[in-house]
Design goal:
Length: 643
């Protein structure tokens, strides 16, 4: 018992002493470190104190004239200095914040283990269906043949279906990307829309009861067989107590945590494909994964979809109908909305009348949403467009909606108008307003690339198709431009819409119709819109015009009296500060390396008469090594090509 008590007292004394040492080091360095780093540095100081003191006692005390107290203080200072060196090295090798805190490690251990098991299961599914070589960047020889691509597409669809809800949704979105994927993949992935097994009614009823209360008190009747079962939710026909026929959209039970975990896996797989495959970098697989994750998180909250439905319907001026939501009965997992009678565009028969007129109406609706309303349906695939029983079109499923501000809408209008006129300079200027441009760009080379793009897709007799979007994105990527997510959603929605238009009216030329309609929007804006735009511009200019005479008078007076001065903020740009700091670091490394080298030479030459290696020689050799490391680091920075 006494030994245990002694051990506890010794451990407590050691920890307290270590913390005191750590506090002293933090004050001396003028920086605050984490508790673990401070404790370890304090323990290093304690461990160094006795060996350093003994070494000094044997070499210095024998010379005489040095008191024991002074020697103890000197040893304490040397131990603290050694611990400070260890602390600086720890910051260099493992910067603060680069590793998670111990509490975070313990708290997230269960989640990481679950994610690792799920990740392992996804990889096993991919390998079992022959997709392993493609994840590592290799490609089978039969991929270049149509039969090989079809087998690979079928394997991909089967693997996504087996992987679960998030990957089924990913496959559904990929099935609309005819601009990115070959036809074999689009056909195979399209079957994922119709092959989702519904969850049992008992589980769905539990979600309804948790969000709405007793089902019988809200609905006079509700079908237990779903109208549709999707990867995120299931849809049921019901009748309210007031007699109104509605559709009830219910989120699949328990999918929230599963989706969050799978989205992390999707991001990791996208990073792997981006780094290991050329086609992954070409199509921007990481950006696609990020956009997919954002859309999935929005779709998990039906309150977002409710607000989206209200926003899209508020700006609608075409013949397309939108269901009206019952906001009082809707929440995060349940959405009650008006029922539109009709069939999905994907199930429309060949005897549908006025197919070309309906396709033109659908395209006109989407372009109006994008170019004038600023709120648009971002996922208009054929399953989300209805052919109504009474004629006309309806749009459903507003879980993914894009929004554009006035500046982006005007820039897009100028871009489309310049493309319609095949104006190279106009397209280049409008494109640089739409995207995020780098600091330096070769304007001449960009204009030449845009000229080739227009000659390929917009010249008389040229074949314009949905592939033009992929070519435009390729120009953007080649010149280091960055497409904002809201603009990427526009092009993704138009590419998705092309599949529905082709299914509704085979041979429908979406690009030609879009050029005509978009040009008509720009050229034939109603007088009220033009007047409102002019008034907005005038109201913006009036304050500047009002202040202009006073500012001109002040400048003229200062110039006349010789008091004109200009204030310039040096290093106001973050990039300038980073450049100066990098230059200072390089100069500091050079000075430190040279100083360490000179000190090493002095110590080695001055103590060279001793027959054995002394303490000073050991320090000299150590300084020589440090000098060589610092000099080599400076040389590497100087000669590195991408500095």
């Amino acid at each position: 018992m006494g030994n245990v008590l002694d051990f506890v007292l010794l451990a407590g004394f050691t920890v307290v002493t270590g913390l005191l040492f750590a506090g002293l080091m933090s004050r001396l360095m003028g920086m605050n470190f984490g508790l673990v780093r401070r404790l370890l540095a304090g323990l290093v100081a304690i461990a160094l104190f006795e060996p350093v003191l003994n070494g000094m006692r044997s070499t210095i005390l024998g010379a005489g004239g040095v008191s024991q107290l002074y020697l103890t203080l000197l040893g304490l200072a040397a131990a603290v200095l050694g611990a400070m060196i260890c602390l600086v090295l720890a910051e260099v090798l493992v910067p603060t914040g680069s590793l998670p805190r111990p509490t975070d490690l313990v708290r997230g251990l269960r989640g990481r283990l679950a994610r690792a098991r799920r990740y392992s299961r996804i990889l096993r599914i991919a390998v079992r269906h022959g997709l392993g070589p493609y994840l590592s960047g290799r490609r089978r020889a039969d991929f270049e043949q149509a039969g090989g691509r079809s087998r690979m597409a079928d394997s991909l669809a089967t693997a996504l279906d087996e992987a679960g809800v998030t990957f089924v949704k990913l496959g559904q979105i990929l099935s609309t990307r005819r601009d990115l994927l070959p036809p074999e993949f689009v056909d195979s992935l399209s079957r994922l829309r119709d092959q989702v097994s519904p969850a049992p009614w008992e589980q769905v009823a539990a979600v309804l009861a948790a969000d709405l209360g007793p089902v019988d008190e809200v609905f006079s009747a509700i079908d237990r067989e779903p109208l549709a079962a999707a990867s995120i939710a299931q849809v049921y026909a019901a009748t309210l107590r007031s007699g109104e026929r509605v559709v009830v959209k219910v989120q699949r039970p328990g999918i929230g945590p599963v989706v969050q975990r799978d989205l992390d896996i999707v991001a990791r797989l996208a990073t792997t494909l981006h780094s290991r495959t050329r086609w992954g970098r070409t199509i921007g697989v990481r950006e696609l994964a990020a956009g997919f994750a954002d859309a999935m998180r929005e779709e998990l909250d039906f309150r977002v979809e409710t607000a989206n439905m209200v926003a899209v319907a508020a700006g609608s001026r075409t013949g397309v109908r939108y269901p009206r939501p019952y906001e009082a009965l809707s929440g995060k997992r349940v959405l009650v909305m008006e029922r539109l009678d009709g069939v999905a565009l994907s199930a429309a028969g060949p005897d549908t009348p006025d197919r070309e007129a309906l396709a033109r109406t659908l395209l006109d609706t989407m372009l109006r949403q994008v170019m004038t309303d600023g709120v648009f349906h971002a996922d208009p695939h054929p399953g989300n467009v209805l052919l109504l029983s009474g004629g006309g079109l309806g749009m459903i499923d507003f879980g993914s909606v894009g929004r554009l501000d006035n500046a982006l809408r005007e820039a897009l209008q100028r871009l489309l108008l310049a493309m319609d006129r095949a104006d190279v300079l106009g397209v280049a200027d409008a494109l640089l307003e739409v995207v995020r441009r780098p600091d330096e760009i070769d304007q001449v080379r960009l204009e030449r690339a845009i000229g080739q793009f227009l000659a390929r897709h917009m010249a008389p007799g040229a074949s314009a198709g949905v592939r033009m979007f992929a070519d435009l994105f390729r120009i953007v990527a080649d010149f280091g431009l960055s497409v904002p997510p809201e603009v990427a959603a526009v092009f993704r929605a138009l590419a998705t819409l092309e599949g529905g238009l082709t299914q509704l009216s085979p041979g429908f030329d979406m690009v030609a119709e879009a050029r005509a309609v978009a040009a008509g929007y720009v050229h034939h804006q109603d007088p009220d819109t033009l007047r409102r735009t002019a008034m907005d511009e005038l109201m913006t200019l009036v304050p500047m015009l009002r202040r202009l005479p006073r500012r001109v008078d002040r400048i003229a007076g200062a110039l006349e009296n010789g008091r004109l001065s200009v204030n310039i903020r040096l290093l106001a740009d973050q990039r300038d500060r980073q450049y100066v700091m990098a230059l200072l670091h390089q100069v500091l490394l050079t000075v430190l390396g040279a100083t360490a080298g000179v000190m090493a030479v002095i110590l080695l030459v001055g103590d060279s008469s001793q027959p054995q290696v002394t303490l000073l020689q050991t320090v000299g050799y150590s300084l020589l090594i440090i000098s060589a490391v610092l000099v080599l680091r400076v040389l590497a920075l100087i000669f590195r090509r991408d500095r």
